Amino acid sequence: MPWNVFWADHVLNNQELVNLIALRRALHRAPEISGQEIETAKTIQSYLATTKPDKVITGLGGAGLAFIYQGIETGPTVMVRAELDALPIHETSNVPYQSEIANMGHLCGHDGHMAILCGLAHLVAHKRPARGRVILLFQPAEETGQGAKAVLDDPQFAQITPDYVFSLHNLPGLKQGHVGLVKLGANCASRGLQIDLNGITAHASMPETGVSPMQAVAELMPALSALGDGGKLDDAFKLVTLTHANMGEPTFGIAPGHARIHATLRALHDSAMQALCDRCEAFVTSTSKKYGLDATFSYHDIFHSCHNDPNAIDILNRACDALNITIDHSIGPMRWSEDFGLFANHAKTAMFLLGSGADQPQLHNPNYDFPDDLIPIGAEIFHNAIREILE
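Structure (tokenized):
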């Protein structure tokens, strides 16, 4: 009997759905930003105790958790990842479970992603796989790009060694419950470039006795944007977004001797990102020398590109087909970035996009809220993928 027929009635029951929605809303009320997800991790660990995992790894890459469910026989290891962290943004929605923490909110849907994995835990607990292992990873610090690396660098990760790693992200603008599958390039590489221009301060009455960064800043800001003006999301795509700039001190008596510019760089591939970094640094260096300045550079929030494995995407495609879920193959790579791409160095990986509604506020908008109806859909897609590999 085909696996999708054999398991056709294996779904979340009503009480589990009620509990999962309550969990999602509790997480929504108590968001914690990257690197501070201690109470969130405790909530997840307490909730999943009833699913009786064979082992729980705690403190993974910080507040990370890995729940291990052993199959009946030895076989491949399939890991599914969700994110623990929220955003440092004040929530403006009027939902009764809105954030109770000032200037923090689950405005990217990670509360929903966690609830989906908890639903998946129920499905795995109903009947363990015939072989192999299922590992549910709750990863910290995705929003800063540091979490996946911290998990992979943690010596405890040696206990996991996955063969496949799956994840999802909800996608506003895509019809609710529909799925977007992107082959190969799924998310852009990105990083924050901080540029410091150092000159010499002077009395405001004698600016000619100093070295001001003013002209360099005026020249660099539009020129840096022109180095990456976006366009079609293909191999040549590059985007430079100026996000911050300041110069001197907020006084009237001092001509400035220092300026700082922040820019976010994006490219579809890591190699193109490196080329864009080199080009930006070369241009800034030549411009700063022209005006007698020293330039220094530092990089922050580094995200590598995320590429889906063709075999893993085919598995997700069949998992959706078995549930009669509409797949939108026109969805292309996303401009936003994900540290999930690092797991591709250790396993076959794939991320799918789960539509959260055509009229849904966009991710990181202050009034965003994850739709509860997506919880069983996401859990059952993951479960079908796991069953194909392990049954």
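Confidence is low (pLDDT under 50) at residues 1-9. Residues 137 and 390 are 18 Å apart (CA to CA).
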